[in-house]
Structure formats: C-alpha cells, structure tokens
Design a protein that fits this description.
The complex is a heterodimer of chains A (about 450) and B (about 375). With about 450 residues, chain A is an alpha/beta fold. Chain A folds into three domains: about 5-85, SRP54, nucleotide-binding domain (Four Helix Bundle (Hemerythrin (Met), subunit A)); about 105-300, P-loop containing nucleotide triphosphate hydrolases (Rossmann fold, 3-Layer(aba) Sandwich); about 300-445, Signal recognition particle, SRP54 subunit, M-domain (434 Repressor (Amino-terminal Domain)), CATH 1.10.260. Helix content of chain A is about 55%, strand content about 10%. An eight-stranded mixed beta sheet of chain A has the order 3-2-4-1-5-6-7-8, with helices on both faces. In chain A, about 45% of the residues are buried. The model of chain A is unreliable at about 350-370 and about 435-455 (pLDDT under 50). Chain B starts with a helix and ends in a 5-residue tail after the last helix. Chain B is built from 17 helices and eight strands. By secondary structure, chain B is of the alpha/beta class. Residues about 1-50 and about 55-70 of chain B have low confidence and may be disordered. In chain B, helix 3 crosses helix 6 (about 70-80), helix 6 crosses helix 7 and helix 15 (about 305-315) runs parallel beside helix 16. Chain B has helices spanning about 1-10, 10-15, 20-30, 35-45, 50-65, 70-80, 80-95, 105-115, 120-135, 140-155, 185-195, 215-225, 235-250, 270-285, 305-315, 335-340, 360-370; strands at about 170-175, 200-205, 225-230, 255-260, 290-295, 320-325, 345-350, 355-360. Helix content of chain B is about 60%, strand content about 10%. The chains are: A alpha/beta (about 450), B alpha/beta (about 375). Chains A and B meet through helix 2, helix 6, helix 8 and helix 9 of A and helix 1, helix 8, helix 12 and helix 15 of B.
C-alpha cells in the first residue's frame, strides 16, 4: 500500500525538527516536496499540483505550529484544508426542475468510463426519492450498449426508451423526451456513446443534442483511475459541451483518485457522486473531505490530526493516570478497555500509532495487524468478565475462561489467546518501566510509544 | 470509429464498402502530410545524422505505400497521438534548442515524463539513469541527450519475436482487466486478426456478469466471423471456459480467446475467481500455450501499476494490451509496469474499428511519443 509512505516520509524528515513555534520556509519546503510527490503519485495533474503547492507554500510559511503537532503534521493539516477547499467544501446534489416539469440529464465521457452503468445507478437513486425516471439509449455505436441499458433499467425499475441503432442520437433524444411527457416521467437520463474528447464529429453530436433538446444537467463520467489525461478530457468536454457536474466512477478500486482534483480544478464544476461498485445501489454522495484525504493517501489519519488534539486535551487526566499505572506495572483489563475506547474515538489504533511522533515508521506494520473486527472481539471478551476479573487478571482459571467464552460468543481458544497476549504485554510493560520514566511518560500516548500492544 | 467517421467525410465513396486496406492506406497518406510540429522540430532534427534521416524516411514511405496495415496502424497511432505529440514534441523541441544540459533541462524532462503518466518514481529512475549515461559518455548536447533517453526507453520496452510465438502455437488466451478497459472490444479485434491469418479461432464469453456483455461479444464474433461459446447470465465463468476448452480440443482449435468480466484488482473474491479460471484454462486444453493478457486503458494513471501487480499475482501475466491509444493519453505507465514486473506490452488498440489493433512496436511507440514526424 502506498498509504503509509507520506506519513512515514514526513516523520523521517521532521525527526530532527520537532516542536518549533512557527513554520519556517525551510520546513514548508521540505514537507511540500513530499506532498508534491504524493499528489503526483495520486495522479493529480502536474500543472494542478504545481499551482496547488505554490498556493499552500504562501499560506503555510509563518503559521503557528499547533500544540501536539510537529511541523510536518502542521503542513499536512494546511494542505488538507486547502485540498478540501479546492474540492468544494459542501456536499452537492442534483437540482431538479420544480413540480412536475421534466429534468433532463445527459451522461457523457470517454469509452469505458461507466456512463451506462451510472445512468442506471442514478435512476435507482431517483427511484428512492419516488421520481419516475426514463433512460434513453443514445449509444447507437457500441454493440449491445442499448441492451445493457435496457437490462439495467429493468433491474432498477426505471422506464426505458430506445429506437434501435439505426436512428441518430439527436432524434432519439428528442423522441425520448416526448415519450417521457406522455409517460409521466419527471427525470430523463440520456445515455450517450463513449467518445474521445478530440473526436470532433462525436463531440459535435453532443452539441447537437444539447441544441435540440433542453438538457438541464450535463454530467461527465470520469474513471477515478484516470491519469494525467484527466485534465485534457475534462477541459475539452467542458469547453465544447459545457458541463454541470461530474460523476467519479470506480472509486471502489484502490486508486487514489487524483483525477477528482484535476477535474475540479480545470472545470470548477462540482463532483456530484462517486461510483462505489458494480451493483445498482453502489452510488454515493461525494464528500470533499474524504476525497482530500484519499488523494493525500493518508486515510483517516488526517481527521486524526484534529481529533487527536481535542482528545488529548480532554483525556489528559485519564491518560496521566493510566500512564502512571502502566509504569508501576499495574495494568489491568479496565485500563485495557479504557485505552481501547480512546483508540476508537480517534479512528483506530493503526492510524494513531502512525501519527505518534517518532513512531510513525512502525505505523504501517502495526495497522496491518489490527483490524476492527478483532478489536470488537477483544472488547467483547473483556466485557464478558466480572468487575473482579477485570481488576485482577490472575483470577482467570479455565472455568472462568469457559464462561467468558460463552459470554462473548467466541471460541475458548480465542479467549485464551487474548489473555495470553495480555499477560505478555503486562510483562513487557514491567520491563519497560525504567525506560518509561521521566519526561517520556508524560501522557498515555508517549507512554505507549515504546511497546507493542497486542490488539 | 473516430477514424472511420472522420474518413467518411473526406472519402465518402469508400464509406459503404468499408474496404479497410484502402482506408488504411488513405489514412497513412493523410498522416504523411506534415503537421505543425515539423517546423518546431527542425532545429533538433538538423542535428541528427542527415543521411540516416533520409534513409528512415524513405523506408517508412516504402512500407506505407506497398503494404499493409502495419505501418498504417502506426501512422494511425501517430495521427491519433498528434495532439499529444504536438505538445510533447513542442515542449521537447523547445527544450533542445538551447543546448546546455543543466538542471532546468532535467526538470523540464521530468515534467514531460510525469505528464505522460510514467509516474514520478519511474521518471526519477529514468532520469537518474540518463544523467549517469550522459556523464559516462560525455554528452554535451541536448539533442543527443534526448536520443539517449528515447533509446533507453525503447530498449526497455522492446519486445522479441518469442513474445508472440503463442500466435503460431495452439493457445488459450485469457483476457483480463478492470471494468471498462476494453477487454471485449479487444477480443473482437484479436479474433479478427487471427482469423484473417487462417487460424481456427473460438471465443469463450466468460463475462457472465455485466449486462449484455455476451451480446456485445457475439456482435464482435460475427463481425470477425468466428464461433463463440457463451454461458447464461450469472453462470459460473469457469464453467464457460471449461466447456470452451473441451470444445477447442475436440475441434482442434488454434486459438481460444476467453473474455472475462471486468474486475477491480482489490476485489478479493473476483480475483480468486479469476485465479480459478486461469487454472482451468491451463488444465483443460493440454498442450496449449496459455497466454494471459492484461488489458490496460492508456488513460489510466498510477493505479495501472497496482492493477498489473495484483493481476500478475493471481494469474501470471504474459503481456499487456494498451487500449485507447488514439486519444491524448500517452500510456506511459506501461513503462513503469515493464520496469517493475517485466511484463511487456504486446498490442495496442488505436480505435473502435475491428482492425484497430496492432502489435506493439517499441520503436514506433517511443518515437510517436517523443517526436513529430518520422513515426
């Protein structure tokens, strides 16, 4: 996974530069170099990256480094804010014509972007809002495209209109809208053939459709995996046809989706939806903040920067207390449970460990060992213990363990494994006592820095 | 489609007959018409060995004139890539005007390479190698440096005859890739080519998932004039391949082409399904060579690397088909894939017509990317 790379790199870069008051030009430069790489690896257009980095640089130099963050994290925080800004800070929806008037949408894009599939997904979405949708098949070129749309229309319970592949798309579109009027549909979605943005004739066809029928929303479907070419495509479609919104398809893949940023940057048009799978209900709202962190390649880590700040403040007391108990080796299941809760608040252990100053390097391996299901199971095990057992782990005998296993619905072996791990980490903590004295034990998170948790 | 429609306006008499050879020639000729890049290029070209230039040009002309789709396709590819190339070559020829090889020069090269989707990491590797060689060979001129760069990419991307030996063997070809890459279309084109060379071809329609995928493929099969075996929608795709392999065996089929459903590489179950299909393809037609080709949309960015990795993991890819090369995308990511996984690009798709597929040729590919005219 490429996800850990940026965090790790930044940790390394800033190892020697911890906790300065304000971001210096040098800090920003070093950090932004890594950000630039990350954005390019995410397929954000080279030119967009250049502009973006310039803008961030200007803003970041001289900013105060927030308490608890290192300069690298601070830069990332700023980068993220700017990314979200650029992507449109609000969630958008398609606007419909008032009352019973028909809203006409037209899908366009390159071949294989997912137009036909997304036309049907939109219809499914509108059906939920009890809007009767008509799908109009204007892809007369690709073999079986009409059939594909027909089958999908049936699946989502939308109406379907086609005139075969011998009649021009413009006439089909016109007839389709007339049909919708009679048929009582309030949304018409025109599915068009995939085309290259440099194919003049085919682009002219879309212009003609728009000239002969009223299209309220022209939607460009863009494959989330698109590379540097995304800017050319979006720009051409926007200039020649005029776009109103963008649908980002195939977001259920593992691409970082930098195309989203490029397309938004060159067209200024909102990204409305993201396609998250092959099923007809796999269409999601677009959330700029989620997209920003995906492009940066840091998952939820970003939101953690802010959350960590709050949580550390609130739980400082608990943290201090626990850290001191840890130092004394008096770590019981209650503490374990408590620390797990804190983890959850902040979006999982892996991401937290990744964010800890000086520990980021290990974050990658640890997060791969942790999964949420296992955390839930661990929690169930502890919650199936009596208060006494939680306080005094030594009480646990086979009989009690069997009871716990029944209580949490897990296998006895799983319970045993967890308890064994717990004992090991207790031992490890005792051994760590010396190392954890003094300043390093300042709060829970630093305290945990040196040890391996058996989650 | 793009090409054909364009042609339709210019040469309407030929339209109905769809005589492709003529059409291709026509296109080849059109592509000969000098495009604006030529002027921008001249400065750089002058520096090259003039004799060789001439030889090359005449060779190209000869080949184009007397035959055969091959050059036509690259002319076509070149034509399709004109915009791209204009930009790229424009950038490059500007670059090479000033002659000093300095950091600015390398930075501009970096920009050009990154914008071709080669990826920042591969770009840096390529440039590091270039810098080393420039030093070693005491190169002082930008034009020579550029030749060196082209040469090194070409060398890396070169295919050998053995990469295509499966075409002459009995083969099972499994065509895999993510959704919308162009697998079904590519199968149609491959079937047409093999059929035209007198091979006995059978198509297995193992995409039983996507709505109307079977219909789409059977349209291609009838265009190509080959037989197709399908399964019901929702049938187990492995069973389709199983049946097809047995049919192929009993009829002594030369090339069995298997279409598969598009799948994103991070879908564990679908990838496992593909693994099974690969195993069956391997087992059920004993003695046949198994060729597994990844279809890659040339507009894809860095994710293509992850695609290649994951597909390679479950099926051991033997080659890549780069589709949609007639757009403005450069398909540079194939270079990164080659350097990481060693999987060569074997074919490229340059349009929507049944003959718009050609063997990948590293030289033409790189030249077409970097240069204006002589591709």
């Amino acid at each position: 996974m490429a996800f850990e790379s940026l965090t790790d790199k930044l940790q390394n870069v800033f190892k020697s530069l911890r906790s300065k008051g304000r971001l210096t030009e040098e800090d920003v430069k070093v950090a932004l170099k890594e950000v630039k790489m990350a954005l390019l690896e995410a397929d954000v257009s080279f030119k967009v990256v250049k502009q973006f980095i310039g803008a961030v640089q200007e803003r970041a130099v001289g900013e105060e480094v927030l308490n608890g963050l290192n300069p690298g994290q601070m830069v990332i925080k700023i980068v993220n804010e700017e990314l979200v800004n650029l992507m449109g800070s609000e969630v958008t929806e398609i606007t419909f014509q008032p009352g019973k008037s028909i809203t006409v949408l037209m899908m366009c894009g390159l071949q294989g972007a997912g137009k036909t599939t997304h036309a049907a997904k939109l219809a499914a979405r509108f059906a939920k809002k009890s809007r009767k949708t008509l799908l109009v098949a204007c892809d007369i070129y690709r073999p079986a495209a009409i059939e594909q749309l027909r089958i999908n229309a049936e699946k989502v319970g939308a109406d379907f209109f086609s005139m075969g592949d011998k009649i021009g798309p413009v006439d089909i579109a016109k007839a389709g809208i007339e049909y919708a009027e009679k048929n009582g549909d309030t949304v018409v979605i025109i599915d068009t053939a995939g085309r290259l943005h440099i194919d003049e004739d085919m682009m002219a066809e879309l212009q003609e459709i728009k000239q002969s029928v009223t299209v309220h929303q022209t939607l460009l479907v863009v494959d989330a995996m698109t590379g540097q070419d995304a800017v050319n495509v979006a720009q051409e479609f926007n200039e020649k046809i005029g776009l109103d919104g963008v649908i980002l398809s195939k977001m259920d893949g593992d691409s970082r989706g930098g195309a989203a940023l490029s397309v938004k940057a060159v067209t200024g048009k909102p990204i409305l939806y993201v396609g998250m799978g092959e099923k007809m209900e796999d269409l999601d709202q677009f959330y700029p903040d989620r997209m920003a962190s995906r492009i940066l390649g840091m998952g939820d880590v970003l939101s953690l920067i802010e959350k960590a700040q709050e949580t550390i403040d609130i739980d400082e007391e608990t943290g201090k207390d626990m850290a001191s108990r840890m130092r004394k080796g008096k770590f019981d299941f209650n503490d374990y449970l408590e620390s797990m809760k804190q983890m959850k608040k902040m979006g999982g252990l892996g991401s937290i460990l990744g964010m800890l100053p000086g520990l980021g390097i290990k974050g990658g391996d640890i997060s791969s060992m942790v999964d949420d299901k296992q955390l839930a199971q661990t929690e169930a095990i502890i919650l199936s213990m009596t208060p006494d057992e939680r306080k005094n782990p030594k009480l646990l005998n086979p009989q009690r363990k069997h009871r716990i296993a029944r209580g949490c619905g897990l296998d006895i072996a799983q319970v045993n494994r967890f308890i064994k791990q717990f004992e090991q980490s207790q031992k490890a903590m005792k051994q760590m006592q010396g190392m954890m004295g003094g300043k390093r034990g300042r709060n829970l998170f630093n305290g945990m820095g040196g040890m391996k948790f058996p989650f | 489609m793009f090409w054909n429609r364009k042609k339709k306006q210019e040469v309407s008499p030929e339209e109905a007959s769809a005589e492709q050879i003529d059409e291709i020639r026509e296109e080849a000729e059109t592509a000969e018409v000098p495009c604006p890049v030529a002027e921008g290029q001249s400065a750089a070209t002058e520096m090259q060995d003039a004799a060789e230039q001439e030889k090359q040009a005449s060779n190209t002309a000869e080949e184009v004139a007397e035959e055969e789709p091959k050059q036509g396709f690259f002319a076509r590819l070149a034509g399709g890539m004109t915009k791209t190339r204009d930009k790229l070559a424009g950038n490059l020829s500007n670059l090479f005007k000033e002659n000093e090889i300095d950091e600015d020069f390398y930075e501009e090269l970096e920009e050009i390479l990154v914008m071709s989707d080669i990826g920042i990491r591969s770009t840096e590797e390529i440039l590091d190698r270039l810098k080393e060689n420039v030093k070693k060979e005491h190169i002082k001129e930008r034009a020579l440096c550029r030749e060196l760069l082209i040469g090194s990419i070409r060398e890396q991307m070169a295919t050998s005859e053995s990469d295509f030996s499966f075409e002459e063997d009995k083969s099972v070809i499994l065509v895999v890739g993510v959704n919308g890459a162009g697998k079904t279309t590519t199968i149609g084109k491959l079937a047409y080519q093999f059929k035209n060379r007198g091979k006995k071809v059978l198509i297995a329609a193992a995409d039983t998932f996507r709505a109307a995928a079977g219909d789409q493929l059977s349209a291609w099969a009838s265009r190509a004039g080959v037989e197709m075996i399908g399964g019901k929608d929702g049938a187990d795709p492995s069973s389709v391949i199983f049946d097809a392999a047995h049919r192929a065996q009993s009829r002594n089929i030369d090339i069995l082409l298997c279409d598969t459903a598009g799948r994103l590489q991070n879908k564990k179950n679908l990838m496992a399904e593909l693994h099974k299909m690969g195993t069956i393809a391997q087992k059920e037609y004993p003695g046949a060579h198994v060729e597994i080709l990844l279809v890659l949309d040339a507009t894809t960015g860095q994710n293509a690397l992850s695609q290649a990795r994951e597909f390679n993991e479950v099926t051991e890819l033997t080659g890549i088909i780069l589709t949609k090369m007639d757009g403005t995308a450069k398909g540079g990511i194939a270079i990164a894939i080659q350097s990481e996984l060693g999987v060569p690009v074997k074919y490229i798709g340059v349009g929507e017509k049944i003959y718009d597929l050609q063997r990948f040729d590293a030289d033409s590919f790189v030249r077409a990317m970097f240069e204006g005219e002589e591709a």
